[in-house]
Amino acid sequence: MARLSVRAFRNLGDADLELPPQGMVLVGPNGHGKTSVLEAALYLEVFRSFRGGRDRELVRFGEDGFRIEVATEAGGAERREVAGRQVGPWLPDASRKTVVAAGFDARTGEKRVTLDGLRAERLADAIGVVRGVVLSPSDVGLATGGARVRRAFLDVLLSLAVPGYVGALGEYRRALRHRCHARGADVEDWEALLARAGAQVAAERRAWAERWAERYCGYCGEIGERLESGLRYASRATEGEDELAAALARSRERDLARGTTSVGPHRDDLQLLLGARPLGVYGSAGQWRTAALALRLVAADTLAALDGRAGGPPVICLDDVFAELDAERSARLGALIEGLAARGSQVFATVPREGELPAAVSALPRWRIRDGAIEAA
Q1: Mean pLDDT of the 300-315 span
Q2: Cα angle: 344, vertex 345, 349; to 5 degrees
Q3: What 3-state DSSP class applies to 24?
Q4: Which residues does 25 contact at the CB level (< 8 Å), separation at least 6?
Q5: Rounded to an integer, what distance in angstroms lies between the CA atom of residue 305 and that of residue 101?
Q6: Smallest Cα–Cα separation from 44: which of 248, 333, 311?
C-alpha cells in the first residue's frame, strides 16, 4: 500500500497517510484507534470489517457515512468493454497504480466501490485488489470456535485466491435459502443448483486443505508446537455433484419438514488436529494460539503464491499479536515475520507502548496515534 485515506471511519480523525514501503509500527494507548487503522486498510480487501462490525457500526458518531481509499503499488487496472459499456472484472495492468475506494452512506445503506475511478457494478469485481492478513490475539477463535468460524476463514481466503469461487459460493448460498421454502418441482431445481455450486465450493476447499496441510504443520512446529499437528477438510456427502445431489434427495422430506438443509458444504469443517484429536477440545491455550498463527501464515503464503497473476505480496498486519505469546513463541513468530518481510510483504504492527516492540518489527518506522489522530514519529 502506498497511501491510505480515511473519512469518518470509527474513532479515527480524517487523514491522508503516505505509507512507508516497508510498513510501520503504530504506537498508542488502547482504545485510541490502532486496530481501526488496520481495519480501514483491509476493509478494501473484501469490503467488510475483519472485526465483524456491520457497515453502520463503522461510521464515526455523528456522521452520515464513511469513505476509505487505498492506492496500491500492484499496478492499475482496466475493464473490458462490451457493447460500448465498461464492465468488470478488472484486468491487471502493471504499468500503473491501482486506487480502490469504498464509501458507505448510512442514510440509504448504499455501499459504493470504485477502482481507478470506475464504479464496480458488483463487489466481487473488485475483491482482492488489496490483499492482506491480520494476526491478532482474537484469532484463537479459529481453534476454539465452531466450524462456522473456520469455514468463514476459508471462504474469505479462497474468494481472494481462486477465480470463480465468489460466484460459486454466492450461488450456493442463494440456493440454500430458497430450497428450504420451495415446494414441488422448484425443490429439485434448487437442489440441482445446490449440488452444482456446492460441489465446486467443497472441491476448492478440499484442494486448498490438501495443498497447504503440510505447510500448516510445518508452521506449528516452527512456532514451537512439539506434538504432531494436523489439518484436513471434513465433509459429509460432498465428494462430487452427483453424490451431493443424491444426499439432498435422500434428506429432502426431513429437511423440508424442519426448514433446513442437513447436508452440503455449509455443514463441513476445516479440522485442526493435535495428534488425531480435535485441537479445540484437547489443546492448551498456547497450542490454540500456535494453530491460529499457523493458519494465518498459511493464508499469507496462499496469497503470496498469486504473485504471478495478481498484485504483489500480501500486507501483514500484526495487531498486538505478541502480547499473549511466551518469549520463545514470540521470538519464533518474529523470525517468520522477518522472512515474509524479506520476501516483499509490508508489515504493519500495533503496540501500546514503545518498550514492547519485538525485535521482528523494531527496525520499522514509528508512527503514533492518540485520540484517533495519526502522525509519523
Answers
A1: 80
A2: 140
A3: strand
A4: 348, 349, 350, 351, 357, 361, 364, 365, 366, 367
A5: 25
A6: 311
Amino acid at 146: G
Q: Using one digit for the tens of pLDDT, what is the confidence trace for 175-220?
A: 999 998 888 889 999 999 999 999 999 999 999 999 999 999 999 9
Measured CA to CA, the distance from residue 159 to residue 164 in angstroms comes to 8
8 backbone dihedrals φ, ψ, rounded to 5°: 55, 40
**CB atoms near residue 63 (< 10 Å):** 11
Task: Quote the crossing angle between the two packed helices 241-250 and 185-223, to the nearest 10°.
Answer: 120
Return d(Cα 369, Cα 175) in angstroms, integer: 46
Q: Judge contact between 74 and 344, C-beta under 8 A.
A: no
The three state secondary structure string of 302-359 is HHHCCCCCCCCCCEEEEECCCCCCCHHHHHHHHHHHHHHHHCCCCEEEEECCHHHCCH
**Integer Cα distance of 38 and 59 in angstroms:** 15
Collect all residues with Cβ–Cβ distance below 8 Å to 81 and sequence separation of at least 6: 87
- Using CA atoms of 146, 36, 169, 278 in order, give the dihedral in degrees to the nearest 10: -20
* Amino acid 312: pLDDT: 78
Which range among 75-79, 325-329, 332-336 shows the weakest confidence by mean pLDDT? 75-79
